[in-house]
Design goal:
Blueprint lengths: L2 H18 L11 H71 L2 H12 L4 H120 L7 E4 L6 E4 L17 H9 L25 E4 L11 E8 L5 E8 L2 E8 L6 E3 L2
Antiparallel strand pairs: 1-2, 2-6, 3-4, 3-7, 4-5, 5-6
Helix pairs in contact: 1-2, 1-4, 2-4, 3-4, 4-5
C-alpha cells in the first residue's frame, strides 16, 4: 500500500473512531453510583482518545518522513535539470558554431583541404563522411537531451503535486492529533471533577452519620438523666408524704382520657429554672435539661418546631385537653398508628409523673428540644 493510501486510510479510521466514542464529558450527578458511571465512561473514553492520539502521532511522523523524501527528490531532480540544461546550452553553442563554419569560405576551404589532403577518393569520402557523422551525432544527442529535459520537467511537476498533497494530509493529521489530545484532557477533567464530587458526597455522608450518632447519644443521655430525676423526685415526694406515695388511677372529666398520678414534690431539681411543682419544671427534669423557654406553658407555642413525635414537648393551649388558663406542657412517650399518643406530665390534676392517652394532635403544637 502506498504512503498516500495509508494516510487516507488512517484519516478514515480516525473519523470512525471519534464518531463511535463521542461520549459527552458534561454530566450532573447526585449519587456516588452516578458518579462511578461517569468516571468509568470517561476513563474508557480517555483510553480510546489516547490510542487515537498515539496512532495519529505515528501517522504524522510517517507523513513528515514522506515530505522529507519528496523534498530530497525535488532537490535531486532540480540538480539534474540544471546540469542537463547547462549541457544542452553548451551543445547548442557548439552546433551553432559548426553550422556557421560550414556556411563560410573558411569552412568550405577546410572541406576542400580535407579532400585535397586525402590520399585517395575513398579516403576523402571517408573523412567528409566522418565530419558529417560528428555533426549528426551532436544533433541526435541534443535531441535526446531535450527529451530528457522534458522528462525531468514532468517528473518535477509530479513531485510538486505529490508534495502538496502530502503537506495537506500532514496538516490534517496534525489537526486530528491535537483534537484527540484535547478530548483526552477533557475526559481527564471529567474524571477529576466526578472524583472530587464523589469524595465530597462521601464526606457529607460520614459527617451526617457522626452527627446522628451524637444526637442519639445525647438523647439517650438526656432520657437517662430525666428518668433519674423523676425517680429522685418521686423518692422525695414519698419521703415527704408517705400517704401520697401510692399511685391512684382516676378519670379525666374534661377530655374522657385516663391518667395515673403520683404525689407532687415540693421542689424540683436544684438546676431547674422553672417553678417547683409546675408542668414546666417536670418537662425540664424529664429531658434532663431543655432550652430556656420563656413565659407560661401556653406561651411555649412560639417555640414549636416539630410535628407529633416521640421525645417532643406537646404544648396544650388554655382549655384544651384539660389545660388550665396558662396552658400546659408534657412529654410525648409514644405515638399510636391511629394518630393518638401517650404523654407523661407533671401538675395535671394534682399528679406528678402522670401518664395519659391523648386522642388527637389537633390544635396542639410540638417542640423538639
Amino acid at each position: 500500500m502506498s504512503m498516500k493510501k495509508k494516510i487516507v486510510s488512517g484519516l478514515m479510521l480516525s473519523a470512525i473512531v471519534f464518531a463511535s466514542v463521542g461520549v459527552s464529558t458534561k454530566a450532573s450527578a447526585t449519587t456516588t453510583a452516578d458518579l462511578d458511571k461517569i468516571i468509568a465512561n470517561a476513563q474508557a473514553g480517555s483510553a480510546t482518545a489516547k490510542t487515537q492520539a498515539d496512532s495519529l502521532a505515528k501517522q504524522v511522523e510517517d507523513s513528515k518522513t514522506k515530505l522529507a523524501t519528496l523534498t530530497a527528490q525535488q532537490a535531486d531532480t532540480t540538480k539534474q535539470i540544471n546540469t542537463l540544461s547547462a549541457q544542452i546550452k553548451d551543445r547548442q553553442i557548439s552546433l551553432a558554431a559548426q553550422a556557421r563554419s560550414a556556411q563560410t569560405d573558411g569552412g568550405a576551404a577546410n572541406y576542400i583541404n580535407v579532400v585535397l589532403s586525402s590520399k585517395s577518393l575513398t579516403d576523402a569520402v571517408q573523412k567528409v563522411t566522418a565530419m558529417s557523422e560528428v555533426v549528426g551525432a551532436n544533433n541526435t544527442m541534443l535531441q535526446q537531451q531535450e527529451a530528457d529535459k522534458k522528462t525531468l520537467d514532468t517528473k518535477m511537476a509530479a513531485n510538486k503535486t505529490a508534495y502538496a498533497e502530502a503537506t495537506k494530509i500532514q496538516q490534517n493529521l496534525a489537526s486530528q492529533e491535537q483534537e484527540a489530545k484535547v478530548a483526552q484532557l477533557s475526559y481527564q477533567a471529567t474524571i477529576t471533577t466526578a472524583t472530587n464530587q464523589k469524595a465530597a458526597i462521601q464526606a457529607q455522608i460520614v459527617a451526617a452519620q457522626k452527627a446522628e450518632a451524637a444526637r442519639v447519644a445525647a438523647q439517650e443521655k438526656a432520657q437517662a438523666a430525666a428518668a433519674a430525676n423523676i425517680a429522685k423526685a418521686q423518692a422525695q415526694a414519698a419521703a415527704q408524704s408517705p400517704a401520697a406515695s401510692t399511685s391512684t388511677t382516676t378519670s379525666s372529666q374534661s377530655t374522657g382520657s385516663s391518667y395515673t398520678s403520683v404525689a407532687t414534690p415540693t421542689t424540683s431539681s436544684g438546676s431547674n429554672p422553672y417553678p417547683a411543682g409546675q408542668c414546666t419544671a417536670f418537662v425540664y427534669d424529664y429531658f434532663g435539661g431543655i432550652p430556656n423557654y420563656s413565659g407560661n406553658a401556653g406561651d411555649w407555642v412560639a417555640y414549636a418546631n416539630s410535628g407529633l413525635a416521640v421525645n417532643t414537648i406537646v404544648v396544650f393551649p388554655p382549655g384544651v385537653d384539660g389545660a388550665g388558663g396558662v396552658g400546659h406542657v408534657a412529654a410525648v412517650t409514644k405515638v399510636n398508628s391511629d394518630g393518638s399518643f401517650e404523654i407523661i406530665e407533671g401538675n395535671y390534676a394534682g399528679g406528678w409523673g402522670t401518664t395519659r392517652h391523648i386522642a388527637s394532635a389537633a390544635g396542639l403544637s410540638f417542640i423538639r428540644p
